[in-house]
């Protein structure tokens, strides 16, 4: 009887083993799994090491399963049937889930810049699709949220940066990539200038800094600090609500993601956005605990968040 430590086995290898048992051919198993024959051969080598058994031997032009591999045929069939039954029931429950008839408090974490872009769009979408849901949003901190997600204290994190590890517990989905822009009003020296401004020029301008995290953790200032360069931060604010009016009434400028700059320009049409050279970009990702996806309500909510984010353009 084959013995091994199941906790250390990559369970994806069992799909390859089942295909090889059924097909008795590396080529046909690869076609069935929609992967390359070399990938199947690599997986078979790992299976052989894991079980300390050849599993298949070549007899003429055929691959013949060893006694140990044959003994696994029935348990594998039972395992796969059980998984298919469970996943089928989960899919059915998801299909039967009616967000309009449900009530939920959805706890998520979001950076402050999204208060002008994604958060209003999410509020609108949830009111339309699930009026009984409440959104409880916490400010994003540059730290790991692995424990918060795994425990269920937080359901989703809208994250910039890789502070929360993606592993067997936490999953991530990129939503968009932002370019950092500098926003200026009519009194700024770059207002009537070219569309692209060198970073050296930005450093000489009086800057507004919307919090929530300090400059030692802001990705722009961290990058500048590596070269011992720093911005002239003349005004720090707790959020983005007053940024547009402050820029409009003074020579101050503010660096921010392009979607946030677009939202502020809609509220303050006189403002102009300039690209920074060299460009600096950041990716916004949606993080969640894999275990939570067994809840059809959370699975639906994650899909809605991704759908709404995909509809928000940067221009």
What are the salient characteristics of this protein?
single chain, 315 residues, alpha/beta, Arc Repressor Mutant, subunit A, D-Maltodextrin-Binding Protein, domain 2, 10-stranded mixed sheet, 12 helices
The gist of it:
The protein is an alpha/beta fold. The protein is built from twelve helices and twelve strands. The protein has three domains: 6-95, Arc Repressor Mutant, subunit A, CATH 1.10.10.10; 104-176 and 284-310, 3-Layer(aba) Sandwich (D-Maltodextrin-Binding Protein, domain 2), CATH 3.40.190; 177-282, 3-Layer(aba) Sandwich (D-Maltodextrin-Binding Protein, domain 2).
N-to-C SSE string, H for helix and E for strand? HHHEEHHEHEHEEEHEHEHEHEEH
Total DSSP E strands: 12
Which value, in Å, is the CA radius of gyration? 27 Å
- CATH class division of the largest domain: Alpha Beta
> Would you give the CATH topology of the largest domain?
D-Maltodextrin-Binding Protein, domain 2
Please name the CATH architecture of the largest domain. 3-Layer(aba) Sandwich
| Global structural class | alpha/beta
Summarize the main sheet: 10 strands, mixed
- Termini separation (Å)? 63 Å
Would you identify the regions where 5 or more consecutive residues have pLDDT less than 50?
none
Share in helix? 40-55%
Mean pLDDT: 86
Tally of contiguous helical segments: 12
Total number of distinct structural domains: 3
Structure description:
Helix 9 (219-226) links the parallel strand 8 and strand 9. The protein folds into 3 domains: 6-95, Arc Repressor Mutant, subunit A; 104-176 and 284-310, Periplasmic binding protein-like II (D-Maltodextrin-Binding Protein, domain 2); 177-282, D-Maltodextrin-Binding Protein, domain 2 (3-Layer(aba) Sandwich), CATH 3.40.190.290. Helix 1 (12-23) crosses helix 2 (26-33). It is elongated. The protein is built from 12 helices and 12 strands. The strands form 2 sheets. Strands 3, 4, 5, 6, 7, 8, 9, 10, 11 and 12 form a 10-stranded mixed sheet that branches. It has helices at 12-23, 26-33, 37-51, 67-71, 73-96, 118-129, 146-151, 199-204, 219-226, 243-248, 258-267, 296-310, and strands at residues 56-59, 62-65, 104-110, 133-139, 156-160, 170-184, 196-198, 206-210, 232-237, 253-257, 272-277, 281-289. By secondary structure, it is of the alpha/beta class. Residues 9-66 form the HTH lysR-type domain. Belongs to the LysR transcriptional regulatory family. It holds the Pfam family LysR_substrate. Keywords: DNA-binding, Nodulation, Transcription, Transcription regulation.
